[in-house]
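Problem: given the chain below (427 residues), write out its structure.
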Amino acid sequence: MKACPICGRLYPDDAGFCPVDGSELMSATNAPPNSSVLDPRLGTLLFERYHLRRVVADGGMGRVYEALDMIEKRNVAVKILHENVSRDPIEVERFRREFEISAELPHEHIAQVYDFRPTAEGSHALVMEFLFGEELRGTLERERTIPPARLVRMVSQVAIALDEAHARKFVHRDLKPDNIYLCQTPDGDIVKVLDFGSVKDNARGAQKLTVVGTTIGSPYYMSPEQAQALDTLDHRADIWSMGAIVFECVTGRVPFTGNTGGAILMAILTKEAPLLSSVAKEIGVTVPSRLDAVVERALRRAPSLRFQSMGAFADALGAAYGLEGDHLAWAPMREGDLADAIREGLAKAPAEATEAPSPEDSFFGGTDALAASVPPRITSSPKVIDLPEAAPEAPALGIKPRGGSNLVWIVALVVVVALIVVAVWAL
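Solution.
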């Protein structure tokens, strides 16, 4: 490893100069740590292994450092929890769970956690792979929307990662733009899914890390069953969350809004998402009309009416943009090539969709990628991953998928839920 003697950033051995300040790089073991931030930890060796080089970020949970792993000779990110966080057994257990799940789920599209243990100063430190890039949240704040090719490539990679997690009966439960990391490369983003500390392990019935009256997740991306803290929640909650993320990536806004967490959850439980194409049109973005059916299906209240796997959702998304093939082929494609394929596909596709896909179409049988609304264009069969058997569904507060007559009872029951649910805005 090499390091910049000015800013302290770490680089591979074949790098010559720091792209940030232009300084010539030197051996990481000889370069001084960044001294621009006064921090007594800088320059120290954590656990006799991790040489803390520079402060990367400060957050509500802890301070993040870039460090050099002296044994593996790689740069890593070290998060040392703030004292108050380290005293909270629930928070400590969440970080411990993230470390343990990472060991069980090594994957190229999931950020890997290498170490977690108490420090000599009485805190705890989480060590994970160091990522170059930014969270999807940062990209959306700067650019507002995501172009089709970049979106399809991103969702395809997320689908590969989460289908693997779901096959092992892990439910992420906190999928949001903050937890999708985009590592930029010349060929396009390499996606890493972050923060498996909120995972529900349906295989082992892991310890519940919430208290009565609270939920895990950001309210904007929280599925109806998660908003109600239902024990029957399964992998399809993540599919709903991804639907909300796709909606935001295309339109620049989330599908459900409110002035408080409770108001957002009430909207999710009682309202339909606005038509994606109509919202996109408001900001001058034209989308294929078939995309409406894809996102609408992902956001259905009843889990049984959604796509039944993340891969099926990704396949339908690509098909709506006129692509041939499946998400396994699109995930590694150069973004430029994917953009060309989308332009060609949309030029050949019919101008308007016919009808919405049948709710009976599912990942486990029939056609799942917009069979009813898009002419068959997929030329290779999607890889089928054995997912856990769907848990029985609890009624969503008596709310029918498309309205109902008992409006007073609906509102009364939802108000009760909204009052007892405390949404976690940023985990």
